[in-house]
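Moderator note: this is an archived Q&A kept for reference. The question asked for a predicted structure of one protein chain; the sequence and the answer are reproduced below.
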Amino acid sequence: MPTHEIIKAKLTVAARWLPVFGALMSRGFVVAVQTGVSLRSVLCDQLGIEASYLENRIQTIFLNGQAVDDVNQAVVKHGAVVAISAAMPGLVGAVMRRGGLYAGLRSGISYRAEGGTVEVLAGTIQLKLFNLVAKELGPHFLSQGIRVDSRVWQEFLSGQPEDFQQGVITAHVDGRRIEPLDLFERQWPTENVHLVVTIDPGHGRA
């Protein structure tokens, strides 16, 4: 039976393999934040995303499946799912773009503030990053550490090509250094893995 124990995994990888972690970014990962505050506060003040990046790069945001136009009015509660993306192509991208001319076409799934008082407290959210946002912000979150479901982590590892193993320079599990190959062969029985990924400075980018 799975337990609530968290396994800590720390990897150092060659820079050219960093993009493969985009698959984890889009599946979603858990971060600890103060909830009961605005989406802008969570993204910028707590998670370190620059305000200019939020305004100019992040064009589509979903909070619990609802498209957000105003990040100042949207309130993030404990357990919320936040998905962020750069501009998407075509009509779908135009409709989903926050504050865009076609936002009215998706009024049925647009965020609407709930009434009542929301308590400010320490909690967690699930964050999903897509397309260029995953590529550009993924390294920041990976270096800080993310929490992923162990089944998702196992699927990610098993889905990588063989030469990815050569791209893992060092691997530690719960503070103990292991051979990179052992990382792929072991089972991850617990529910959560706290993952930290850093770049080996001796390996250039692709």
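Archived answer notes: The two ends are 41 Å apart (CA to CA).
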